[in-house]
Write a structure and sequence with these properties.
Layout lengths: L2 E3 L6 E3 L1 E4 L3 H5 L2 H13 L4 E3 L8 H13 L7 E6 L15 H15 L4 E6 L8 H13 L3 E6 L4 H13 L7 E2 L9 H6 L1 H6 L3 E4 L27 H7 L2 H17 L3 H10 L6 E4 L4 H8 L1 H5 L4 H11 L9
Parallel strand pairs: 3-4, 3-10, 4-5, 5-6, 6-7, 7-8, 8-9, 9-10
Antiparallel strand pairs: 1-2
Helix pairs in contact: 2-3, 3-4, 4-5, 5-6, 10-14
The structure holds NADPH dihydro-nicotinamide-adenine-dinucleotide phosphate (NDP).
NADPH dihydro-nicotinamide-adenine-dinucleotide phosphate binds next to strand 10 and helix 12.
Length: about 325
């Protein structure tokens, strides 16, 4: 396993990590979840990603149990949760980034995960109705209480993240240190354009999500698929976003590049994400052990990604953000 610095923090995070969205507590049974988590840990991964909303808290329950039965030293891994969406009764104050929901949400996540502290705690989305200073203060409180170690954001704009830094600096509070954006061959703008100043000046780390665009970048949707995430009832919106004729055309062209290297498309596309030095970790998702095995090979493929190859991919995708010349 390769380990990278999480931005300007003192944390070393495995370049590949493991998340439980739509799988734990939902698509796969608890025994499989436990086996996958164990496999991820044994491969050297030291970060496991979760959120209060995943399977409405059940994903954290399953991960908590799996970590207990894995029975490894707590200091050898990091676990996250994310606050924002809530899931209780949809009453006012049961979601968002108010001090009330952040403190109550964290308490509930600690119980479900059966841990004394959460290593990385994320604001799952920006909250347009809560002053950013209130959110920064609440996160600072949780750090002071030892309930979380670091806090960050997910899918915030560069402007919102910068505002959080300004408030933190002005009020001598702890700023966010990592962001969790989507990043893959189809979604590049935030990581390759919007956040560049935050990487340079704030030293922000990133834990990127959906490196395979929910499995589309494994190439399997080029043919017949059996039961998959994107055939699940209720996830039509995710399928419609990801399985489009335009995307499938690009997938087939990128596949000819990975074929020329003699590597799988999935491992190639994950390695492509890791090639960006601003990626601290790529969070993998898997419903089967064979997927995790295949995706771990991305670490070997990374060494084969030459500048020429990256340019070839760029010319196929035609979506590389254009930056002004200096
Ligand atoms: P991916 O884009 O890698 O998708 C993972 C899914 O793709 C698997 O569950 C599996 O689904 C399929 N797959 C994976 N590998 C292969 C393979 N080699 N061959 C064929 N199919 C494969 O990642 P996720 O979308 O799961 O995101 C990763 C993590 O990021 C999440 O678990 C979560 O922790 C985090 N996340 C964060 C978000 C945020 O807003 N902050 C949003 C979304 C995710 P199947 O077998 O069912 O087809």
């Amino acid at each position: 396993m390769e380990y990278r610095k999480l931005g300007n923090t003192g944390i070393q995070i495995s370049a590949l990590s493991f998340g439980s969205w739509l799988t734990f507590g939902k698509q796969i049974d608890d025994k499989t979840s436990e086996a996958l988590l164990g496999m991820a840990y044994d491969s050297g991964m030291n970060f496991f990603d979760n959120a209060e909303i995943y399977a409405r808290g059940q994903s954290e329950v399953v991960m908590g149990k799996a970590l207990k039965s894995l029975n490894r030293t707590r200091s050898s891994y990091m676990v996250s949760s994310k606050v924002f969406f809530g899931f209780e009764e949809n009453k006012p104050n049961q979601r968002g980034l108010s001090r009330k929901h952040i403190l109550e949400g964290c308490e509930a996540a600690l119980k479900r995960l059966q841990v004394d502290y959460i290593d990385l705690y994320f604001c799952h989305r920006p909250d347009k109705h809560t002053p950013i200073l209130e959110t920064v203060r609440a996160m600072n409180t949780l750090i002071q209480q030892g309930k979380i170690l670091y806090w960050g954001t997910s899918e915030w704009s560069a402007q919102e993240i910068l505002q959080a830094h300004l408030e933190a600096e002005r009020h001598h509070l702890i700023p966010p240190v990592m962001e969790q954006p989507q990043y893959n061959l189809f979604e590049r703008k935030k990581m390759e354009d919007d956040y560049l100043h935050l990487f340079r000046h704030q030293g922000m780390g990133t834990t990127i999500w959906s490196p395979l665009a929910s499995g589309v970048l494994s190439g399997k949707y080029l043919g017949e698929t059996g039961e998959t995430r994107l055939s699940m009832q209720g996830l039509e919106w995710l399928r419609d976003r990801n399985v489009t004729p335009e995307r499938l055309e690009l997938v087939s062209r990128i596949k000819s590049v990975s074929d020329s290297l003699g590597v799988s498309l999935a491992s190639f596309c994950i390695a492509w994400c890791l090639k960006n030095p601003n990626v601290s970790t790529a969070i993998l998702g898997a419903s089967k052990a064979s997927q995790l095995e295949e995706n771990l090979k991305a670490l070997d493929v990374l060494a084969q990604l030459s500048d020429e190859l990256m340019q070839e991919v760029d010319s196929i995708l035609a979506n590389k953000p254009v930056l002004p010349d200096f």
